[in-house]
Amino acid sequence: MSLIRKTAAELGAMIAAGDVSAVEVAEAHLDRMAEVEPKVKAFLHVDREVTLEQARAVDARLRAGEKLGPLAGVPIAHKDIFSTHDMPTTAASKILEGWRPPYDATVTKRLREAGLVFLGKTNLDEFAMGSSTENSAYHPTHNPWDLTKVPGGSSGGSSAAVAAYEAPLSTGTDTGGSIRQPAAVTGIVGMKPTYGGSSRYGIIAFASSLDTPGPFARNVLDAALLHEAFSGHDPMDSTSVDAPVPSVVEAAKSPDIAGMRIGVVKEFSGEGYQAGVLARYNEVVKLLESLGATVVEVSCPSFTTALPAYYLIAPSECSSNLARFDAMRYGLRVGDDGTRSAEEVMALTRAAGFGPEVKRRIMLGTYALSSGYYDAYYGQAQKVRTLIARDFEAAYQQVDVLVSPTTPTTAFAIGERADDPMAMYLADLCTIPSNLAGNAAMSVPCGLADEDGLPVGLQIMAPVLADDRCYRVGAAVEKALESRWGGPLLKEAPSL
């Protein structure tokens, strides 16, 4: 088996044993990127020499006897919203084109310390605002399963890179489903940790009360290893949870769910869901029962109001966060010819530097926060958020985890929803409640839809700081389905 088809855990073990060097593993993935990247377009920035320099440094650390983590030497694709001092960080926006931060994000720093090797920075919807990666200011990314389809968003570059075997691992951020939705439509594993369980420091902010860094991988154990590598309390992030990281790796290695209580969310099925998605979902619910779990239907009525609440809260926070891009301190500056005021330069820069979706959300958020409308819009949305959290609390008194489809449909065609923001927003229908409540949630592949042969994801939701339950259930589903399929779902994306 070629190096690119090894799991991250296998690659880490091989590098630690001296069977292969970090440089050889990096070169294998860089060669794969050269082969398929013209079709997939998952990356915004790649520097082969910087990557190989990092790999050589890891090999040197290992030769010197330094004790590194289980992923030392393993390549990773890094979403271009995490600050990196040695690579540009643009958030896929023209307003930050070419910007190099003077520091690393905490997640970036911890991955470097653990010895992971960065292959480059991946594409995303501008400032993480979108569900298709079409909102990137640079180019859309293509789904490796069908190059005419989207890879999801906002972390579509990260999901496509893993699905295309360009990288065994990648990072993403999940604000309303931006890890789980792309993972579902590209047939890989994506995890949104408990809010505050992974540091936001050094991540370009979209919505500060929702943004959550998390891992992508092609299997549950690899995702758990990455999750554990960068999670934990960070004093640089005021919202960071000062609590031990849940034992996610142990859970991924213990896929026994006998006796667990699993709740099927009543509100997340039926009308508006693709038939092939529901078919795979219903099959996996029966599979969970066959593995010894007790499955019960659970009603969470406030979940139906999550989408409108989210699209008031997230844009409001975006309006506040993006005010820092003022053409005065860093990034793009337009019209500064000595004749214009600072206000004129700021307006011209934002007009040129922000894309249509970012402008739309800034305007929505600014309106929702404006005098006379705050209580009617933002205030009411926060009350709905409280009701959603209470629905979760009530559900978790009955069950250990909740399950649902990750997305109502499989991947849609590039351009299909570009002119219909509401249709685009509906891609996150099932994922948003977990962001509003701050609890843990994962997507694992559960098969292919009959209509189009594209991947379907199962969403597993767990209480705050019970991330390990997602991994336990996810690993059980993965093991049972791989036994049924005779191997992993993602053996090779058909279009490549």
Automatic annotation (TrEMBL):
Broadest EC class assigned to this enzyme: ligase
GO terms for MF: ATP binding; glutaminyl-tRNA synthase (glutamine-hydrolyzing) activity; transferase activity
Protein biosynthesis in keyword set: yes
Active site: K79 (charge relay system), S154 (charge relay system), S178 (acyl-ester intermediate)
Span of domain Amidase: 24-470
Reactions performed catalytically: L-glutamyl-tRNA(Gln) + L-glutamine + ATP + H2O = L-glutaminyl-tRNA(Gln) + L-glutamate + ADP + phosphate + H(+)
Gene3D superfamilies: Amidase signature (AS) domain
Entry's Gene Ontology BP terms: translation
Keywords of the record: ATP-binding, Ligase, Nucleotide-binding, Protein biosynthesis, Transferase
Keyword Protein biosynthesis in annotation: yes
PROSITE patterns: AMIDASES (PS00571)
Documented EC number(s): 6.3.5.7
InterPro entries documented for this protein: Amidase, Amidase_CS, Amidase_dom, AS_sf, GatA
SUPFAM superfamilies, sorted: Amidase signature (AS) enzymes
Chain segments annotated as transmembrane: none
One CC-aspect GO term: glutamyl-tRNA(Gln) amidotransferase complex
Short name of one Pfam family: Amidase
Subunit structure: Heterotrimer of A, B and C subunits.
Entry's family note: Belongs to the amidase family. GatA subfamily.
UniProt function note: Allows the formation of correctly charged Gln-tRNA(Gln) through the transamidation of misacylated Glu-tRNA(Gln) in organisms which lack glutaminyl-tRNA synthetase. The reaction takes place in the presence of glutamine and ATP through an activated gamma-phospho-Glu-tRNA(Gln).
Name of the protein in question: Glutamyl-tRNA(Gln) amidotransferase subunit A
Naturally occurring in which organism (per UniProt): Nonomuraea turkmeniaca
Organism ancestry: Bacteria, Bacillati, Actinomycetota, Actinomycetes, Streptosporangiales
Gene: gatA
